[in-house]
Structures are given as C-alpha cells and as structure tokens.
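As a warm-up, study this chain.
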Amino acid sequence: MTPFVFSQLLTDEYAAKILTAIMKVPRSAQQLSDSYGIPIAACYRRIKLLERYGLISCKERRLSQQGKRINYYISMVKNAYIFFEDGRLRVKLDLVSGVSREFEDGSDNGDNL
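Now compare it with the structure written out below.
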C-alpha cells in the first residue's frame, strides 16, 4: 500500500467520518449512515475498504429483531499522520494494538496492513 492511497483513504470525507465515529463505540453501518448522513451504499464501500486495510474491525455481530446479523465496527487506528517532507509523502499509523506502521513514497517498509 502506498502512502498516496492511504492519504486518500484517510482524507476521504466518508471514511474520516466513519473512523471518527467508531473510535470508542462500535457502530453498525446503518447507524453510521443515519447519524452522519453517509449514503448506505457508500458507507458499506468505505467499511469494506477500511476493513481490508486493517483500519477498522468488526467487534461484534448482533441479531436484529428481524433475525438479520448486523456487524458493529470499531476503529483500529489510534492516531494517523500524513507528512510531506523533503518532497516525499509519508503516512504513519499508530494502531490501538500499540503497533506503528509507516509508509513512504513507493515503499511500504515491508509491512502491509
């Protein structure tokens, strides 16, 4: 994953709203959509991307009154930084697990989320 792609994801309006909303309290896609004005299809797309890159995780699954399973997501990101230094783009993620990941132009330093 390049720092450019991470910087796009972190600064995407809907992705940023989702990450902020689930920092401490798990929420479902429907709750996120209703509370933050994110169209439900866009909400599911962002959740899929954020989950794919390890930025969020499904914390629990509950049954609705209609018997449907609903996923509740929590952020795995404690802090995120985007730097532009000496003509190079760099992204640093501090995860709630205590692990830090850094991505620089053209290199992911061997770590993949």
